[in-house]
UniProtKB/TrEMBL annotation:
Annotated family: Belongs to the FAH family.
Domain Fumarylacetoacetase-like C-terminal as annotated: residue spans: 69-273
Source organism of the structure: Ferrithrix thermotolerans DSM 19514
A Gene Ontology biological process term: carboxylic acid metabolic process
GO molecular function (one): metal ion binding
InterPro entries in the record: FAH, Fumarylacetoacetase-like_C, Fumarylacetoacetase_C_sf
Protein name: Acylpyruvate hydrolase
Pfam families with a match to the protein in the record: FAA_hydrolase
Keywords: Hydrolase, Metal-binding, Pyruvate
Length: 278
């Protein structure tokens, strides 16, 4: 099954993909839908409204607009660890984002006037469906509602001001997510999918999700021992090599460039970058 969060009226609505059209639900986004059905997306068929939106008229929002938390893994592909000059870590590198960082899968993204080092990081996003606290790796897969495409757009100059990543990762409306949530059965729990990123027509990143240091199940189990993962929470699982900061010389995004983020079987984001006026 596939789901999306769409603009509707003066607000938004979670919707089910029926190939040629979407059928709306009474929930404002996928996070609230998951909370409403206890993580069981099969129940949504009984909750749909008689409201249909053709695919060509759909206006997409981030799949989850109201997560209680967004947890990100850094340095989670072996080749990316190497290109950034780090040693392989013993434990997952975690940092957080806020809902205000999220933006839609096809929205323009501002290049902040204060940053000259805006970089790309295509990532597999995991949407939590059921609460997870102190779960084993085997139990973790039952907490996955589905997968989305994300790009952890990073302001490297801010990121490198201190030893903590946070300030370079939380600029408002800088993290595109979507376009749809794809349930695990459609992509074999995303164990070995192609993951790629393009700047305009140039392929800048290409790998497979099987090359993660910490797998999806390992990440959920590890995080759940620190904090309870709730329905609608979002986990970003790290990026492979090929980021702009890892090049010699470094390469960063400029006004007018289009970033495409692709994951096999899950979808593609397309975001144009616009220089902020102030």
């Amino acid at each position: 099954m596939r789901f999306a969060t769409l603009e509707y009226g003066n607000g938004s609505a979670a919707a089910i993909d029926f190939v040629t059209h979407y059928q709306l639900t009474p929930f404002e986004d996928l996070a609230s839908l998951l909370r409403g059905v206890g993580g069981d997306l099969q129940k949504t068929a009984d909750l749909t409204l008689e409201v249909y939106i053709p695919k060509e008229e759909a206006r997409y929002l981030p799949g989850v607009t109201t997560p209680s938390k967004i947890i990100c893994l850094g340095l989670n592909y072996y080749d990316h660890v190497k290109e950034m000059g780090h040693d392989t870590v013993s434990y997952p590198t975690l940092f957080a984002k806020f809902p205000s960082t999220l933006t839609g899968p096809y929205d323009d993204i501002e290049i902040p006037s204060v940053s000259d080092a805006v970089d790309w990081e295509v990532e597999l996003g995991v949407v939590v469906g059921k609460p997870a606290r102190n779960v084993t790796e085997d139990q973790a897969k039952f907490s996955v509602a589905g997968f989305v495409v994300a790009n952890d757009v990073s302001m490297r100059d801010f990121q490198r001001r201190t030893s903590q990543f946070l300030q370079g990762k939380i600029f408002e409306r800088s993290t595109p997510v979507g376009p749809e949530l794809v349930t695990p059965d459609e992509v074999d729990y995303a164990k070995d999918l192609i993951i790629e990123c393009y700047v305009d027509d140039e392929k800048v990143q290409s790998s497979r999700t099987s090359k993660m240091v910490t797998s999806v199940s390992e990440a959920i189990s590890y995080i759940s021992r620190i904090t309870t993962l709730e329905p609608g929470d979002l986990i970003l699982t790290g990026t492979p090599s090929g980021v702009g900061a890892g090049r010699t010389p470094p390469v960063f995004l400029h006004h007018g460039q289009v970033l495409r983020s692709y994951i096999e079987g899950v979808g593609e984001l397309r975001n144009r970058f616009i220089k902020a006026s102030t």
